[in-house]
Amino acid sequence: MAASTRRRANPALPTLDLVQKLSETVAVSGDEGPIRRLVIEAITPHVDSVTVDALGSVLAVKAASARSSGRAGRGRGERVMLAAHMDEIGFMITGVDSEGALRFDVVGGVDDRQWIGKPVWIGPERVPGVISAAPMHLLNSERRLTVVRPATLRIDIGAASEKQARTWVTVGQRGTFASSFSLIGSARRPTTLRGKALDDRLGVATLIELLQGERYACDLCAAFTVQEEIGLRGAKVAAYAFDPAVGFALDCTPASDLPPSAVEGENTRYNTRLGAGPALYVADNYTVGDRRLLSYLEHTAEAHGINVQRRQPGGGGTDAGAIHRSRGGIPSLSISVPGRYLHGPLAMARVADWRGSVDLMRAALTEWPGLRAMRAA
Amino acid sequence: MKQLIQKLTEVYGPSGHEDAVRDLVRAEIQGLADSVTIDPLGNLIAIRKGKGRGGRKVALAAHLDEIGLIVSHIDARGFVRVTNVGGVRPLYAAGGRVRFTNGAIGAIGVETRRERPDHIPTLNDLYVDFGVARAADVPVRVGDVGAFMGAFTVLPGGRVMSKSLDDRAGVAVLIEALRRLKTSPHEVAFMFTVQEELGLRGAGPAAFTFEPEIVLAVDVTATGDTPNGARMAVALGAGAAIKAKDTGLLVDPRLRDLLVKRATEARLPYQLEVLEGGRTDAAEMQLARGGAVAGCISIPCRYVHAPSEVVDLGDVEAAVGLLVATLSKPIEL
């Protein structure tokens, strides 16, 4: 219960400021620089080494406490990799029309219906724009019911000409939904986070906080990965470089838990539920969670009074999908903060679920017994 | 051979829960290999050292796992919603039985779509009925895994029928080849892999560790010999299938031709195989590290991924013979 009992009584958590900064930064897959700078600044005083690999992931090592590393033979001092991805979904500017409107291609998985009419930020300077949408009184009923494909949409940045648009943005720049971060609930005890890119800036914030803490019973190999949203690319080479004994992906996963309409009956496909604690993965589309790690985290959660839920098995994937198949095989597990409306302009997550994931991982690393000492679930 | 296959199919082992199959294989190969290890993902690797000169590093792979179901939700009335572990065909699953890791058995029901009587069921339409009256009595929880039931049976024509002949038939071939292989110039790794049905996940890391020069998967393949079946030149009872191509592998023609040559010399029945939808562990193993020459010996199998898969024991025998003949001699490509 380390973090929750030591929490200061002043408005919210100090790390919430960091979450806000992380959430409001634009860092679409392949262009993670702005987040990378924040990460390096936040962790450098607290780690033994920090490097940026060839793909752009930040790799940091916090060695085990001296007491633990001396007992490596008993499984302590093991190399434990934690990965959180820096990138977010968004788009890339692919062209400028003669009228100064911008064409774009989608980066990562976004429902076509999400784009139309939304405000966006482009590039590191967050040039504001809006995705074009005709007002409804100009649309006939058929067009109103048609999904408009992103290929036919344009981003309007208020430029009067192609020439002017090209002075504000360049082809190849990335952008994403323009959403400012906010907290819901009392100022002292906010209950809910609301912002873009909580997937996976909450994981990034967790990993930063874990690195800022005391040393653990294992070597903490932290990977802030790139290009997760377009195929787990950064994690693949990060795991190869770290060659850890086990891997964890810290991510965000959808909660589709609002009650369905009366016609549908019971909601049987919610993936996760908000407020039920961090979600542990039995299996998703890319990974079968290692049963020893799952059991260890479930037991650790129970011993510390931390709520956890099992994510419904099914689709989706995290960096664990790349990590576990690296080298000769690396037992891996994913743990996610549930969030509603992920991969859209504005997600919502519960503060308690996120804090639960920090508390759980801190306890798990502090008490790390070594993989050999764990029993399969 | 028949008894070995029966024993192997009767063991429970959906992807990620291969423990019991691995234990059985380990017992069956005791004393036959120079080393036996279990790697980080759970692959069982038995290595036979080569004798004499000119040997290569050869990896053989057959997968321990079978397809199954995994619990996703338990509804208020105690019906258990599930999703797939591997390539489950809802049509094959509906009306069958499923056994979970803790031994609990349930019936697989299908939502009756009164408004669409001709609807082909999808995974979302399936549920498991444990015969309980309320949710509190359901013997499983979200994340628990089950395997289809389908007892090993000898059909009147002599062919055998069971669940999980994919790939316990292949596992049996590897075990039997290890038993019969007297001397080989090659260092051979007999790899019994995990999580093949989920996307060949175990084999790649296993190959990374062993660093083979040549890899051969032994797995089942579809056939084209059933009424209105696929257009495919593979038939049950026509011998071991020497793969030329599937979705993940173009077999090196030198290796393919060598297998054909060995089959011919040993007068073993064989057929050439092109599989248009499907992959085997060889597809991943060929890509480990700097790459390996890859091939595959397939066992023709009808109704793959149904609880009643059917194979011909003559084809299985031919596969064993072909492996032993190939490994007993130098492999010059």
The first-level CATH class of the largest domain in chain A is given as Alpha Beta
Order of helices and strands of chain A: HHHEEHEEEEEHEHEEEHEHEEHEHEEH
Total helical elements of chain A: 11
Instruction: State the oligomer.
Output: heterodimer
Largest sheet composition of chain B: 9 strands, mixed
At CATH level 2, the architecture of the largest domain in chain A is: 3-Layer(aba) Sandwich
**Structural class computed from helices and strand pairing of chain B:** alpha+beta
Poorly predicted regions of chain A: 1-11
CATH topology of the largest domain in chain B: Aminopeptidase
Structural class of chain A: alpha+beta
What is the CATH H-level superfamily of the largest domain in chain B? Answer: Zn peptidases
Domain unit count of chain B: 2
* Interface with most residues: A-B, 23 and 30 residues
Identify low-pLDDT runs of chain B. Answer: none
CATH topology term of the largest domain in chain A: Aminopeptidase
Number of strands of chain B: 18
